Amino acid sequence: MPSLQNAVTVITGASSGIGKASALAFARAGARLVLAARRAEPLEETARECRQLGAEAIAVVTDVTDEVAVQALAQAAIEAHGRIDVWFNNVGTGVVGPYWEALLDLQKRVVETNLMGTLHGAHAVLPHFLRERRGVLVNMVSMGGWSPTPFAATYAASKYGIRGFSASLRQELTGYPDIHVCGVFPALVDTPGLAHGANFSGRAIDPPGPFLTPEHVAEVVVGLVRRPRAEVAVGLPATAARIAYGIAPVLTERGVGAAMRAALRRARPDTRSEGAVARTVPTGTGTRSGKPVWHVRGPSLGGVALGGLGLLVGAELLAGVLTRRG
Ligand SMILES: NC(=O)c1ccc[n+]([C@@H]2O[C@H](COP(=O)([O-])OP(=O)(O)OC[C@H]3O[C@@H](n4cnc5c(N)ncnc54)[C@H](OP(=O)(O)O)[C@@H]3O)[C@@H](O)[C@H]2O)c1
């Protein structure tokens, strides 16, 4: 889909963060937007900002855990525009902390939101894509869909699930060359998302970064719809995580675990919070949270990532040799 002019585009999770940045990016590209999230006012604000950019945009309050509401979202797009060209399943949330510490209800809600929300979206839009024999479905994954995320195990489970779902669906649709299923795998992005997640770690969650901007992720998503690909990494840490876990899974798992344990130990104590996982919170309606972001995508960072990768592979090979000797 080289041009997005008038492309009817549904984006879930458009009241903040990457979803809001994506709505604005698609608006600039001339798309007609149908935007969804639970909070009416910030969602309407995103729609207003899209209209100020000259795009058509409507807001449809939707909880993606509710399959009937997601069907109604698709229906609203069809009633407004007669077709759907692009559907971006962007909604996502998480629970941070040891898995056994957080309420099981919240963990279930993460799966219902991230994984079931994506399944609901696909189920609602695919009949329209199949009828037209064309369309682009973009599923938000994360680099946490390529390598483990200790202390956010349910988040990882949901993102691995979305990745497996997308890869499988792609094969079911091989008879439809103009229907595409794409996955986006960003590294850390500065959004209100971290504050919207639940925190049962007992520590303040304030990772040092580096953070991408949501606007950068949004541009990647626009590019992905123009030139659909199965999976796209956003940011070098995502590429490094993919390669490292592919080549040296044991060491990557241990390395990520050690880094997360150390980061939590160093963090200041904080109270537990359920965030916006089950119920909305009024805070966090912008695209960013205000952390210093990472604009550098030059060779020095690439060198660091590749150097780290080299170390991982070397250590994995060494560990293999030592294990065999033992
Ligand atoms: N930030 C990162 O570092 C990062 C990295 C990789 C991937 N991602 C992924 O990017 C996506 C967007 O996250 P973000 O960082 O932009 O966080 P965010 O600002 O919290 O955005 C999440 C959006 O989803 C909506 N939402 C949450 N639960 C919902 C539900 N049940 N039904 C409908 N809408 C719901 C939220 O709005 P309401 O509260 O108004 O519903 C909000 O608009 C997520 O899938 C996340 O996993 C984020």
UniProtKB/TrEMBL annotation:
| Classification via Gene3D superfamilies | NAD(P)-binding Rossmann-like Domain
Superkingdom is Bacteria
Chain coiled-coil ranges: none
A Pfam family recorded for this sequence: adh_short
- The UniProt transmembrane annotation reads 301-322
> Which parts of the sequence are annotated with region: Disordered?
269-293
Q: What residue stretches are annotated with the Ketoreductase domain?
A: 7-149
Ordered alphabetically, the record's keywords are: Membrane, Oxidoreductase, Transmembrane, Transmembrane helix
PANTHER family assigned to the protein according to its UniProt record, in alphabetical order? DEHYDROGENASE/REDUCTASE SDR FAMILY MEMBER 7B, DEHYDROGENASE_REDUCTASE SDR FAMILY MEMBER 7B
Query: Of which family is this protein a member?
Result: Belongs to the short-chain dehydrogenases/reductases (SDR) family.
Name of protein = SDR family oxidoreductase
Q: Which organism is it from?
A: Paracraurococcus lichenis
